[in-house]
């Protein structure tokens, strides 16, 4: 499954549920019992697998759409939650796309680079030390999305919490930006009229998952 299969495990479960996912549930359950990284989370993650197994595919798909497509607070696009309509969001996505390409990772058709399942798929294919660094950079946003899902009582909250627990860095609370329309983001970031993709920076050493003002600050006596 790659260098870090646990990331791929979470990635697959966060994607739109298809029949193949349900058919593979025994494999997901086996990994949950066998992989050390998931042992401390086995109880709540098992509950999520039971949720998938106890509903028919149509119900699962309808709930997924209601959760992620109709509620921007739950969007699985990382930069949605920190940049909003700021034009720096496009620059951050270009940096992340270059990070992917530097390691030979190609996105699927019509897929934005800040889509969390895509990032997790990428983390599953790079050396563990590099994957942990990137996860530590992105965990603040991942934990934020998980918190929004938990507030809504979504079964998907445990997946985001599980990913957060894999991080070597403790998450900090985020300041929520204005919500941006994803169709507009796709049009802005996608190929131009000639089919040419936006110019990529020649080299990216650090992916900036959040702007400097993204974190809430806590002052003494406040």
Topology record:
Blueprint: H1 5-14, H2 19-23, H3 25-34, H4 42-53, H5 57-69, H6 88-102, H7 116-123, H8 128-151, H9 157-165, H10 182-189
Helix pairs in contact: 1-7, 3-4, 8-9
Strand content: under 5%
Tally of helical segments:
10
Taking the alpha carbons of the first and last residues, their distance comes to 48 Å
Number of strands: 0
Q: Give the structural class.
A: mainly alpha
* Low-confidence runs of at least 5 consecutive residues: 184-205, 217-222
Largest sheet: none
* Approximate shape: globular
Helix content, binned percent: 40-55%
Determine Rg (CA atoms, Å): 17 Å
List keywords for this structure.
222 residues, mainly alpha, 10 helices, globular, disordered C terminus, unfolded protein binding, oxidoreductase activity, DMSO/NO3_reduct_chaperone
Notes on the protein architecture:
This protein has 222 residues and is mainly α. The protein has one domain (5-166). It has 10 helices and no strands. It has helices at residues 5-14, 19-23, 25-34, 42-53, 57-69, 88-102, 116-123, 128-151, 157-165, 182-189. The termini are far apart. This is Nitrate reductase. Pfam families: Nitrate_red_del (PF02613). It is an enzyme of class 1 (oxidoreductase). Keywords: Nitrate assimilation, Oxidoreductase. Its EC number is 1.7.99.4.
